[in-house]
Amino acid sequence: MSGQAKEAILQYIEEMDLKTDNKLPREEALAEMLGVSRITIRQALNDLAAEGIIFRRQGRGTFVNVDSLNIKVTFSPCMELTQMIKKSGYAPSVRLLNIQKVKREEEICSLLQMQPDEQLVVAEKLFLADDKICAFCRDYFGMNLIGGEEAFDMFSKYEDSIYKYIYELSGEKAQWDKVEIDTVNPAEIAGLKKYVSVKELGLSPYLYLKTLNYSEKDKPLVYANEYFNTEIIKFNLIRQKNIQY
């Protein structure tokens, strides 16, 4: 419910004349306007504050952070790659390069809490922005998550998000993730050169994210290696300060 309230508040913000006034109505007024409880509104506002979209001033009220509305791509909340590409002003396209059963990598299998005899699956995708290489993703998950061999055989025909595919087969929704951030020379990305030339990758370092994605019940679903061409996608983040004065 708070998610729906959050979207409704974002819609309200889009319709505000922020050049004139960036103050939001009080919680009571928003609750009455949207037909939900104050608790729901408070949770939605807390989420928006955590994302830097609004800020609170004690004794004055809640205000829209106008600068945050100009940010196209953020680290949090995490959006799908095709959406990132669109928001960055490009036409997205996706190539499913490979989907295969691979030898168990014990570190990854442990992170995914897989069964001892469970098959590890990897899917590799290339994301393009106006036909330029934008990102490369290598997603690992356990065969049991998608229900076995029959579902695996269908995967090569599936062109949508891997998370939607997993949800359709398992009912598990990716809710949050834990990320380790690094950089890498694109020419050194393991296995990528068999699909594209070094020239196509460019010379600038790529942003490298090691991501473990969890369900609503905190169950690990997908371990991902994600590589981003930051000449195309620019990440931004508004951070709250926690300084002891």
TrEMBL record:
SUPFAM superfamilies: Chorismate lyase-like (SSF64288), Winged helix' DNA-binding domain (SSF46785)
Keyword annotations of the record: DNA-binding, Transcription, Transcription regulation
GO biological process, alphabetically ordered: negative regulation of DNA-templated transcription
Gene3D superfamilies in the record: Chorismate lyase-like (3.40.1410.10), Winged helix-like DNA-binding domain superfamily/Winged helix DNA-binding domain (1.10.10.10)
GO molecular function annotation: DNA binding; DNA-binding transcription factor activity
Signal peptide: none
Annotated ranges, domain HTH gntR-type: 1-67
Alphabetical list of Pfam families matching this protein: GntR, UTRA
PROSITE patterns per record: HTH_GNTR
PANTHER family: GNTR-FAMILY TRANSCRIPTIONAL REGULATOR, MANNOSYL-D-GLYCERATE TRANSPORT/METABOLISM SYSTEM REPRESSOR MNGR-RELATED
Protein name (Swiss-Prot/TrEMBL): GntR family transcriptional regulator
